[in-house]
Amino acid sequence: MTANRNQRPERLERLREIVLERSFRYNESHPFQLVSGVFSPFYFDCKKTTLDPEGAHLIGEIVFDRVKDWPIVGVGGLTLGADPIAAAVMHTAWSHGRRIAQFIVRKKLKGHGAIKWVEGNLCRGDQVLVVDDVVTTGGSVIKAVERALEDGLNVYGIVVLVDREEFDGMKRLQEAMPGRPVEALITKTEIMALYNRSRE
After folding, report:
1. Where does residue 167 rank: exposed (0-12), middle (13-18), buried (19+ CB within 10 A)?
2. Using CA atoms, how far apart are residues 135 and 32, in angstroms rounded to an integer?
3. What is the pLDDT of residues 10-46, one digit of tens each?
4. Side-chain half-sphere CA neighbours of 27 within 13 A
5. Which residues have CB under 8 Å from 48's CB, separation 6+?
C-alpha cells in the first residue's frame, strides 16, 4: 500500500474507487429490485467491497478515524451487512490501542439459552456504534438500533458505508436518532460522478 493511501483524503477516494469497481451497477432501462421491494436503476453489492482486503482495511481506518473520539465500546449492526464493517473497525481500533468490541444483531430472536437479539461481549448500558453497508429506506439500520436498545445497549451514533440518496433513508435515520451523529462515508452522487468520468 502506498503512503498516499494512508492519508485521509486519498484513503476515502480509493474507497470510492473500490466501491465503483466492485460494488456498483447502473441500468436505467432495467431497474433492480432491492431488498426493501422498491426498484432502482442503481445497485450496490457492498459485500464485494467490505469483504475485500483493501476495502475492509480502508473502511476500518476511515470509520475509526471518524469515531475515535466518540464514547463507544462496541460496534455492530444487523447481520450480515454490518458484520464485516464492524469487524474492520474493531481490529483497526485495537491496532490503535483502543478496545471497541464487535457485536452482531440477529435477524431472528435466539430462542434458547440466553434469549437475546445481540451477540457480543457487551453489558447493558454500554454505548455503541451501529453500522451498515448501504442505506435505502433505513429499515435495516432502524431494526438494528431497536434491537440493540431492547437488549439494553445505548446507541450513540450510526455510520453507513453508502447512502443511496433515495427513499429518504438517511432522513429516517436522523429522525430516529435526534441529536445523535448519523453519517455516511460515501454517497451515490459521488459514485455516479466517478462512473461518468470513467465513461468519458
Report:
1. middle
2. 15
3. 999 999 999 999 999 999 888 898 877 888 999 999 9
4. 9
5. 22, 23, 55
Please state whether the predicted TM-score (pTM) of the whole model is above 0.90.
Answer: yes
DSSP SS3 for 166 = coil
User: Alpha-carbon torsion 163, 80, 93, 172, what sign?
Assistant: positive
When divided into structural domains, the chain yields a total of 1
Locus of grid cell 470513467: 198
> Could you report the per-residue pLDDT of 123-181, keeping only the tens digit for each?
999 999 999 999 999 999 999 999 999 999 999 999 999 999 999 999 999 999 999 99
CB burial string 74-111: b at 16+ within 10 A, e below: bbbbbeebbbbbbbbbbbbbeeeeeebbbbbbeeeeee
By the 8 A CB rule, do 191 and 19 touch? yes
DSSP string, 78-92: ETTTTHHHHHHHHHH
* Domain at 126, CATH number: 3.40.50.2020
Residue 64 structural domain: 4-198
Q: What are phi and psi of 113, to 5 degrees?
A: 60, -130
